[in-house]
Amino acid sequence: DTEVTQTPKHLVMGMTNKKSLKCEQHMGHRAMYWYKQKAKKPPELMFVYSYEKLSINESVPSRFSPECPNSSLLNLHLHALQPEDSALYLCASSHVYGYTFGSGTRLTVV
Amino acid sequence: DQQVKQNSPSLSVQEGRISILNCDYTNSMFDYFLWYKKYPAEGPTFLISISSIKDKNEDGRFTVFLNKSAKHLSLHIVPSQPGDSAVYFCAAGGINRDDKIIFGKGTRLHILP
Q: How far apart are the C-alpha atoms of B72 and B58, rounded to whole Å?
């Protein structure tokens, strides 16, 4: 298995909803990442987990809450989001000379 | 401050010709560099990387060149094919592989028939 799998692929949520994004990899990578990508912009780093511990939080608002229950799973819990949070959310895991990205979750906040 | 710069937002190249995508960086602490290709509504796909100890890395139709003194790298695609039409992101990282990588803003490549 050489993939990073993200679910769901699409998500529409209201501003009062609570939802979660899920990311899974079985490549034995010990670093996992959440990126946010707005249209026509490069991916922006949100969080880095290294050996299941949060190592980088790029000043992300608390309405985004990451969780790494084990070395293969990475979740992003969402609560009270704003319409401007609508974006493509990408998960990645890293190996020696590159990252493997998932295909992303397209999030729309209404 | 943009640490990784792709100054050409778009590039059009005739099918069969060489595509050259350029990238400049400012941080001399970067020690490895990557190129990603991205189609609309998909995650970036890793293409090729290069360590700072090398000046060239080749993988099939893709070759990355690194000029450390100029803090410049380029991706050459030859021959260019229609399926190469996508956005190409240059990215750079430091010694710690668990650390973040910094992306450029991307260059949209159009391969013309």
A: 17
**CA distance from start to end of chain B:** 38
Q: Which residues pair with B51 in a beta bridge?
A: B32
**Helices and strands (H, E) in chain A, number of each type:** 0, 11
- In terms of C-beta density within 10 A (0-12 exposed, 13-18 middle, 19 or more buried), how is residue B89 classed? buried
Decide if A97 and B100 are in contact by the 8 Å CB cutoff: no
* Closest CA–CA distance from residue A31 to any residue of chain B (Å): 6
Question: Which candidate, B11, B52, B55, places its Cα nearest to that of B32?
Answer: B52
Q: What are phi and psi of A85, to 5 degrees?
A: -80, -5
* Residue A29 near residue A93 (C-beta atoms within 8 A): yes
Query: Quick check: A99 contacting B, CB < 8 Å?
Result: yes
Instruction: Give the pLDDT score at B38.
Output: 84
Whether A39 has its CB under 8 Å from any CB of chain B: the answer is no
pLDDT at site B95: 60
For B12-56, the pLDDT digits (tens) are 999 999 999 999 999 888 888 999 998 876 778 889 999 889 999
Pairing relation of β-strands A44-50 and A31-37? antiparallel
- Judge whether B60 is closer than 8 Å to chain A, CB to CB: no
